[in-house]
Amino acid sequence: MPISIIVGAQWGDEGKGRFVDLLAREAEVVARFSGGDNAGHTVAVGDKLYKMHLIPSGILHEGVVAIMGNGMVINPLSLVAEIDRLREQGVNVTPDNLLISARAHLITPAHIELDKIRERASGAEAIGTTLRGIGPAYHDKVGRCGVRIGEMIQLEDFAYSLRQSLQHANQSLSLQGAAVDVEASVAAYTRAAERLQPFIYDTALYLNQRLSQGARVIAEGAQGTLLDVDHGSYPYVTSSSPTAGGALTGLGVGPRYVDRVLGIAKAFSTRVGGGPMPTEDHGVVGQRLRGTGENFWDEYGTTTGRPRRCGWLDLVMLRYAAVVNGFSELALTKLDVLSGFEQVGVCVAYEIDGERWETPPTSNAQLERANPIYDMLPGWSEDLSQARCLQDLPRAARAYVDYVAQACGVPITMVSVGPERSQLVVL
Ligand code: IMP
Question: Which tens digits make up the pLDDT trace of 67-76?
Fold first, then answer.
């Protein structure tokens, strides 16, 4: 009956998709609760690669119902394209296994245009958004002037609301010399609405009904704790709540159902976009962690293709993520990437203006001045990609995992050693 929440413990891209995929085998429902097509999940099954930006990766499992919750913001054109792409790959996507919350909000072409304009205008202080219109869509939601997915049920009313919203947006866009084509957008969105209508549902009621009947639900996080609008390095954050608390409001379920909060952390740190990242390494360590970009698992964005900023694991941030989410367990991904380093660094504290900090400062200015204090642990040279149980891991790799678990006060229950479904060590 209960809910397992899976959330990113860092700045996103931790590899949450594969754990959703794993846990979905024993679940009846997989529900995404925040963000939009700024996210990118890649799931490797045999020689097939499934790339999803909006649809929960649980859709790959027969018998699982995938839900896009009310906390999401949805670009209907991207969603229709994603449904078509998955169908072409042989995945069954029907109103029986995909439900979209009528309360989720719409991303309009004006939101995308505004995102671009704001980023351009911010110059060196740009957030480095994915330019998918995420911030402006959430802005309209909390500003109480957004358009909800449920409006798509009545096509004429939907066209009216969207037209009003776009005309209104064009007034401010015109001040920046920009505009969206209102009628072309209304026509394209209306066509998408016709396609999506059968999927639209009151997902909060559906979820609660399934829970009361004993279904196991996976709440699938997008982005990560350090990008959370409240708990991340504001304003260098996304505009939603990708933390465990966000799962409840983003799906419309109560906390009494939650029995597991699984944090996913990479064995090192990565970040894409602007904002402070104390352990970012501009030298050879950063380069080696990033990879060359030849493999899909190298550190280049799934959504934007941007190279990610890389560095050693930041335990100050990871401990903080464990606290604000209340992790019951952690999974560590990409441990195999650390093979071959003579020593592996972990940041245990920051030095800021001559003082030692073991928790992150709330001020970005201070965080920008943080110098990481590292413990250097012995490295290992063995290839980990074939490891499947604890005994297969070299002693130094096991010591690394133990060290991280102890430092966070949270058990590490799984470690991934490659992109394939099977490349997993369950501890
Ligand atoms: P937005 O969500 O497009 O507004 O972008 C805000 C910040 O969050 C930027 O730094 C993005 O790079 C980052 N971001 C958004 N989605 C993801 C993601 O799925 N993975 C990693 N970073 C993300």
Answer: 999 999 999 9
**Are 222 and 132 found together in one domain?**
no
**Whether residue 211 is found in the same domain as residue 92:** yes
Locate the ligand 1 atom nearest the alpha carbon of residue 13 and give its number: 20
pTM score of the predicted model:
0.96
Could you tell which of 269, 271, 272, 333 is best to mutate to test the pocket of ligand 1, judged by most ligand atoms within 8 Å of the CB?
272
Is position 231 annotated as part of the catalytic site?
no
Domain-ending residue, one of 169, 196, 223: 196
**Alpha helices (H) along 269-369:** 284-290, 315-325, 364-368
| 277-315 confidence digits (pLDDT tens) | 999 999 999 999 999 888 888 999 877 788 999 999 999
DSSP readout, 341-369? -SEEEEEEEEEETTEEESS--S-HHHHHT
DSSP string, 119-178: HHHHGGG-----SSSHHHHHHHHHTT---BGGGGGSHHHHHHHHHHHHHHHHHHHHHTT-
Distance CA 271, CA 418 (A): 20
User: What DSSP assignment string belongs to 189-245?
Assistant: HHHHHHHHGGGEE-HHHHHHHHHHTT--EEEE--S-GGG-TTTSSTTSS-SS--SHH
Active site residue 47: no
Considering 37, 41, 53, 111, which one is annotated as catalytic? 41
Phi-psi region of 340 (alpha: psi -120 to 50; beta: other; left: phi over 0): left
Domain that holds residue 95: 3-100+200-262
CB 21, CB 51: distance < 8 Å: no
Residue type, 109: P
